[in-house]
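Model the whole thing, not chain by chain.
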Amino acid sequence: MARSCHPGLDPGSIDRRTPGCRVKPGMTSFVRRFVWLVMALAAQAHAITVTDDRGVVVTLAQPPQRIVTLMPSLAEMVCELGACGRLVGVDDYANWPEQVRRLPHVGGLEDARIETILALKPDVVLIPVSSRALARLEGLGLKVVALEPKTLADVQRVLLQLGELLAIPQAKAVWQRIDDGVEAAARSLPPALRGTRVYFEVSSGPYAASESSFLGEMLARVGAGNVVPGSLGPFPKLNPEFVVRADPEVIMLSDRNLQQLRQRPGWDRIRAVREQRICAFTPEQGDVMVRPGPRMAQAAQLMVQCLQGKLPGRAP
Amino acid sequence: MSAVAMRQPAPLGLLLLAITAGLCLAGVAVGSLGWEPLWGGAGDASAAILWEIRLPRTLGAWLAGALLGLAGAVAQGLFRNPLADPYLLGSATGAAFGVAVLLVLIGVSPVAASGWGARIGLTGAGFLGAVLAVLVTLGLARGVQQTLRLLLAGVVVGMVFGAFSALVMFWAPEIMRAMQAFLLGTTGFLGWGSVALLAAVFALALLVAIACSRPLDALSLGETTAASLGIALAPVRTVLVGVMALATGAAVAQVGLIAFIGLVAPHLVRAAVKPTHAWLLPLSALAGGVLLLASDVLARWLLAPQELPVGVLTAVLGGGYLLWLMHRRPL
């Protein structure tokens, strides 16, 4: 935060809300007043105002140069916008792109290390709404912008918001590129496979990704069907019998749950199990798929490859 | 239940058996779409769902509940403490620890774990963890002869193993969801294999426990009195601790940490009748089975096709009934 009170020196960094930092109207010259006005307008133009996902209006004097993110997909978005160099810290789970792995890791959603974050002196902290650290960081005087991309529409919105916040005018083009990538993946699905009924298991509860989850939206986007209706909530804990009766044609799940699949009573009757159309995603692939962020096109490709049987799960 | 009016154990037993039969019918009729008896509908798929999914799940839930109820009655008799429950020897947290470790190993290398990991399974890991914890407890207590020492050792071992699982979950947060399913109890994946195992353990545990019912009755009068009545306490204790550990380990490994049944089932029986252990043990088993099966049916039914965690329902049902009884008259 600039401490200059002299508009002539550093017009771009005037913090107009800092007390005692007002220009004294002692100058009577009209010209000087005019110059000041122009400078002030210029400063206004550099100041950045965003409304975050809490509805809180956050004003920054200038585009932030030191950013801490507390959610993997937020770090991915910042990097996709070409601002990876401005990141000074990321959360413990951020692992893409490669360069964020070398940044200081500052904790997770529930256990963000406040002291570490403060020591990094960030201009802004990008944080999910649900993080417990939010109020604490704000109380310590940091600029906090709460953003939580959860759905397909959120990705576009948050990406454009970040573009404004970081003063990156190409944000729209970046979004367009991602969206085109998803569209291309969807088009590459052979018409015969459209509407293939998929069961996407996120955890062995069994918890499923329904139509109303981000994964469900992606499945719909590439043209696949989902056996779990959105009315059950995004990740319902299902009666296993429901899946047997829904008889999905393809099962997508994490490779850690692949082993148990055949031991579940009655599951060997499911068409996907009989025909071996099971895709077991590695943890890296899982990250790509479950994070609503810039790698959506890659996630869509993975889904399409899976539907085409090009991504064989290891036989249970 | 007109339980308060009953003073004879036999009618209560018949009543519990009747409820069990009714619940079994309900268990077979309630599926992923709620109340949906499939036996009327023809078709290969319906028959398979009844036979392969609903029937084993129903029987398995009852058996697991019965094992916990029996183990609870044994624990309360053995420790002469109405607060004793089958998890007292540390088996519950031991099982949770075993499951957590296996989940992490599967996550670290799914391929390597596919061989032995699949063979042991979460069930095996839970059982091994439970056995390990009980052995540590027995070691700390230097055998089973001092019940107070045993009780204390069990509590400490439970705490320590609980802390171990928390630590494992901290290092590998991706197992959290699977662990939560285990900690809240789950009856969803019970197949015929599980039913056969539970039935065998139940038959054995029930026979041995009933054979020990006279020493348990004597023990309720105090250790000195029991000894003066000519009861050889040492072998009886060893056998009963073995029964308790085996019954609890088998149940926990199959259905996870179902809370409260072991504690509340004997109390429900004692609230209705004042039986000797020869009656209390089988009646507690029946009450435990009824409680878990009822919870299982409701867990499937209330939000179908979603499922509630069955352990939450056991606590609500069993605890609610006990609270009502306590409200009616002091226990």
